[in-house]
Amino acid sequence: MKKNASWYSQRLGQDVSVVRWGNYGTPVLLFPTAGGDAEEIERFHVIRVLEGLINAGRIKVYSCDSVAGQHLITGEGSVAQRCQIQNQFHHFIYQELVPAIRADCATPDIEVISAGSSIGAFHALAVLCRFPDVFKSAICMSGTYDLTRFLHGQPTDDFYYASPVHFLPHLNGDSLEAIRKRVVLFASGQGRAEDIGESWRAAHVLGSKGIPNRVDPWGEEWAHDWPTWRNMLPKYLAELA
């Protein structure tokens, strides 16, 4: 059921690991948290809680190393380099990983669900907004959607191209119309280390442009941690897959 792969990405200048769980169903690209790798979701038992959907052939789950997040957290390189890797990471997803997912599914036009928690939620939202031709919905849990504060410097154009809360207010025409055919689910606890205001702010940006979305508050008993996301994700994938 589990399959590992890796390849060298010229866009990112490094090897990237990718893991798949499942054999059939809607492909789900699940982004790790900030510094996580492709197998993080297995170590934190997310795959275990998704086994029912996986074994029923409703979903195939894919994950890759959080290359952009790792650079952001470690502060490696200049601000401009970190902004560039953020943009290039999304192009890696679109131009390298999605074609590999479609080949693995033996369906050249299959659409993908993106999902993630914390900074992984940022990437889930970003790839849907940037590439609505391949991503059909996004599940964004406990997200941080404005990464400016992590840069510790002046953002470049690469950063803005990669950040939905920055580029969506200025987007119009066919590109915006394509995103309006998609849907985003925001979910956040209101307990320790959670900031549901991030979800409401991102939802406001999307809503102001006519992009369908929903915010689900999960209450004060849900903290910014894996038990919260293990409860959220099966619920939303059962709804969307």
Overview of this protein structure:
- The chain has helices at residues 40-43, 46-49, 51-55, 67-74, 79-105, 119-130, 148-151, 157-162, 164-167, 173-179, 196-208, 226-240; strands spanning 2-9, 14-21, 26-31, 59-64, 112-117, 135-141, 183-188, 213-217.
- The chain is an alpha/beta fold and 241 residues long.
- It has one domain (2-240): Rossmann fold, CATH 3.40.50.
- The chain has an eight-stranded mixed beta sheet with strand order 1-2-4-3-5-6-7-8, with helices on both faces.
- The longest helix is centred in the middle third of the chain and has 27 residues, at 79-105.
- The chain is globular.
- The model has no long low-confidence stretch (mean pLDDT 95).
Secondary-structure topology with pairs:
Layout: E1 2-9, E2 14-21, E3 26-31, H1 40-43, H2 46-49, H3 51-55, E4 59-64, H4 67-74, H5 79-105, E5 112-117, H6 119-130, E6 135-141, H7 148-151, H8 157-162, H9 164-167, H10 173-179, E7 183-188, H11 196-208, E8 213-217, H12 226-240
Parallel strand pairs: 3-4, 3-5, 5-6, 6-7, 7-8
Antiparallel strand pairs: 1-2, 2-4
Helix pairs in contact: 4-5
